[in-house]
Batch of 4 targets.
Target 1
Amino acid sequence: MAAISALGRKVMDYVKTKEFRDYVTSTHFWGPVANWGLPMAAFRDMKASPDIISGRMTTALILYSMAFMRFAYRVQPRNLLLMACHSANVVAQSVQASRFVVYHYGGGAGKTPAVATVLASTATPTPTAADNDTPFATDTTACD
């Protein structure tokens, strides 16, 4: 228990320093914080139907995050918060890309329950023959 209170005291001492205040008020902090919206939206969209996924946009976001992941590592001082954000975005967008490929190229588009439900609810019923209906007669003499 003493170790936990010592760690808590150390964290509180660091939070009170000018170095921490400078970090929290810099773009090295607020840029990644704002960027976390991208992977959070992608993780939230994993529950949505795959027919709304844009293959082009997903590919662009993967490449964008890969480029900025490298940038976040190479810039001095290293921005590990930005790198973590873009790493999470690459993972999230890769999952979305795999869902897109499976849905559009793996035969998933014809098998989704949402599409089947919509088709079933909008389909017109097929008329059935009643006992007193006369069969449809065709004139075969015109084809001779």
Target 2
Amino acid sequence: MSGLCFLFLGIFSLFSSSSGYEQGWMDAHATFYGGGDASGTMGGACGYGNLYSQGYGTSTAALSTALFNNGLSCGACFEIRCVNDRRWCLPGSIVVTATNFCPPNNALPNNAGGWCNPPLRHFDLSQPVFQQIAQYKAGIVPVSYRRVPCRKKGGIRFTINGHSYFNLVLITNVGGAGDIHAVSIKGSRTNWQPMSQNWGQNWQSNSYLNGQSLSFKVTASDGRTVISNNVAPASWCFGQTFAGGQFP
């Protein structure tokens, strides 16, 4: 493919919607990781890489198995508040995006180090955001949490990695429910084709799509769908990121 590859931002979308989700406050626990600057939270099991450049910052969490849903919960947003511990809790609440997995530690009991063991609901927060709701010395605190809409600036972003016959698309900056449960891709010379989840929010297609403009159909956990038509031009290159539509 000739020509220079550059970041191309296209905003073409169609929306269809169904009823959203409703969830009250639920009980869990929270710890923290990643250091005071949250540098240790970069990367992670959702595939987002540099959380600063992707726009997630330090308001992030790693989820236990009970919440992670094999990566399908990546991108979901949660409001969390510290409860029932007057010694360590601070007033107020935080909103975090799920960006990582907190693995179980079956060598330790659930109440003494195995905080992320099934079936426990647990949030391993970045240290800066943990310290907004609890004191550092607490280590672990009881919390209440609920799902909330994600509020993102700009469109859903599609980063196309891989190579010919292996298109691996990382989907980031998703508003609304935040967590994507189905993706389809369409080349300018193909019909819509379902993609499969590879890991985290990386979605895979094994079709040869080089030299075709690309459209994406993204369905979130609440059933709402955004279609971003021709968001990547026919001159797209692997490694590029394109911005499409967004959930309202």
Target 3
Amino acid sequence: MVIESVLQTASRSDYGFKEIPVLDMKDATNPDPLVRQQLAKDVRDACINVGFFYVKNHDIPEEDISRAIEAGKRFFALPEEKKLKYDSRKMDNFRGYTVLLSENNDPENRGDLHEAYNIGPEETYSSKQSAMSGGNVWPSEVLGFQEDLMSYYNAAVAFGRKLFPLFAIALDLPESFFDDKTQEAAAIMRVLHYPPQTGPHDDRVLGIGAHTDFECFTILWQEPDIEALQVLNANKEWVNATPIPGTLVINIGDQLARWTNDIFKSTVHRAINRTGVERHSMPLFFGVDYHVKLEPIQSCVSADMPSKYEVITAGEHVKAKLTAAYGKK
């Protein structure tokens, strides 16, 4: 099988996608390197031409998903004064409760119509020495909240670790390239609640305004049968990312786009819940360890395509993005 380089694939990219591809992860750890290579080629094509793809056969237990979402629903049903005890605006590492309309991902809008609960790696990780240091806060009012969210968090992190070797192959790197850069599971997870938008529509208030994600990639569970997520192509057309039962959505974030000199696309997307019913989703934003320097990946740089970005650490990158999104000084 003749394998072209990532720069060759990028040279004929087409970012005017009309749909989002579905990739089967059953061969993600296949012992045959040629099989893994073919899957990595499909991942490369999706990352260069769309920046989004669905995955099936991801092996995250449905029970873990359901328990985490139900725990989130129990928290969001609490009185506002109890939820505000865990206000993320009081936390240097942005964990805890995000108040309705307190975020605004699109500066043109008036606020994001969702509330959320944010968690990350527990403080036992050495990342406590980084720009995103600190542990999680857990609401005592919701029985089993920590256990239910961490069960899904750990399962999603384990799946994310299976994706990194595929990204490495797709970038003409050794499969183990990311191994020493992902020791601490620098992943931030959110459980999100979108109230239904009823009454007159204000186009400047969306579930989440148009934005890109911050880390290497996002693993998203979205509620079945509720249309909300939309992805922007090069023709400025919004393409629906309709929920597909049994799948998760993967999208490339700014961290990996920056690292690959924008060969992998961090694609603008938004969520609009105009279905008349409440909606829940659960993204996990997977980055590399916060101390890792985002130096340009050499397979993504050439004389015709020199490096675009200065070198910063992953933690500095994420904290700057979160500070801008939350409006913190």
Target 4
Amino acid sequence: MAPGLLGLYARRLLAAAATRGRLAARVRWESSSARAVIAPSTVVGKRAPEPTMRWQEDPDPEDENLYEKNPDSHGYDKDPVVDLWNMRVVFFFGFSIVLVLGSTFVAYLPDYRMQEWARREAERLVKYREANGLPIMESNCFDPSKIQLPVDD
């Protein structure tokens, strides 16, 4: 009964898609357990013939396997000697130059946004103020006696 209902619902779905102007997909389902085949019914109508494609062989030969000729190939060249030297050059510049010298360069970059300088300057001012008996911080950033205010009219 289940394969019959499944076939009936599939036919209804394809018929509904055809009547609404939508293209019905050319689908054929086969059930492995019930051996039921659900194919598009004739209700859908006549379809346009499928476009035919002609098969053409690739004129280029297949890529040759470099590992058959050189099992130690690194993929840089067909010649084993050139391949080995290219691998050595790539790894030398990739690791020695980029990683070692690059990390050394980053480690010795100058003080970013002068954060280290600001800390050293603050410590120097604190030591100076403690040695001279001045308060470490004042409420006035500038000396009020040196500020000239405009005269009131």
